[in-house]
Write a structure and sequence with these properties.
Shape: globular
Number of strands: 10
Oligomer: single chain
Largest sheet: 7 strands, mixed
Structural class: alpha/beta
Number of helices: 4
Strand content: 25-35%
Strand order of the largest sheet: 5-4-6-1-7-10-9
Radius of gyration: 15 Å
C-alpha cells in the first residue's frame, strides 16, 4: 500500500496546464502584485476547466466569487501540489523551474502596457499555438486568449 501512495505522490505535478495573464511585453506582475484583473477572464477560465481542478495561490483565490470556489484549490506551493492534468493559474511566480512538466499554456493578453518586474519566463516560440480568440472584457476593451501546446518536435 505504501508503494502505491508513493507512486501517486510522485505523479503530482507531472503534467501541468498553466494559465497566465500578461501585458504587451509579457509582464505578469509588479512588486508581486497582479497587473490587472477582469471578471470575464475568470468566467472564461472556469468554463474551460471541463471538470478539472484549478490550482492557484491564496492571493489569486481572493479575486474569485465564493460560489465558484468548489473547483478551485489554493496553496502557497500550488505548482508542486497540482495533480496530473490539473490547471494552475499563475500570477506572480516564475515558471521556468516547471517548464518540463508544462504541457499547455493559456495566455490571456491585456493588450496594454503595464509596469512589470516579473515576466513570463517561458519562450512561447518553442510552443505550438493551437487556438486564439479575442473578446471584450469587463475592464479591458480587447483581451486576446491564446492556447499553446508543447511542441513535441523540439
Amino acid at each position: 500500500m505504501c508503494s502505491v501512495c508513493i507512486l501517486i505522490a510522485d505523479k503530482k505535478g507531472e503534467k501541468m496546464k498553466i494559465i497566465v495573464c500578461v501585458d504587451n511585453k509579457d509582464g505578469m506582475a509588479f512588486f508581486k502584485k497582479r497587473q490587472s484583473q477582469d471578471c470575464i477572464i475568470r468566467e472564461d477560465m472556469l468554463n474551460d476547466l471541463r471538470g478539472s481542478k484549478l490550482w492557484m495561490s491564496p492571493y489569486s483565490l481572493r479575486q474569485f466569487k465564493e460560489e465558484t470556489k468548489e473547483c478551485l484549490l489554493a496553496d502557497e506551493q500550488f505548482l508542486d501540489a497540482a495533480g496530473e492534468d490539473d490547471y494552475c493559474f499563475v500570477e506572480n511566480q516564475n515558471l521556468q523551474p516547471y517548464k518540463d512538466k508544462i504541457t499547455e499554456i493559456t495566455v490571456y493578453r491585456w493588450n496594454r502596457d503595464y509596469p512589470a518586474d516579473l515576466f513570463l519566463d517561458i519562450d512561447l516560440k518553442d510552443w505550438e499555438l493551437s487556438d486564439s480568440a479575442e473578446f471584450a472584457g469587463n475592464s479591458h476593451e480587447k483581451i486576446t486568449k491564446e492556447r499553446y501546446r508543447k511542441n513535441t518536435l523540439i
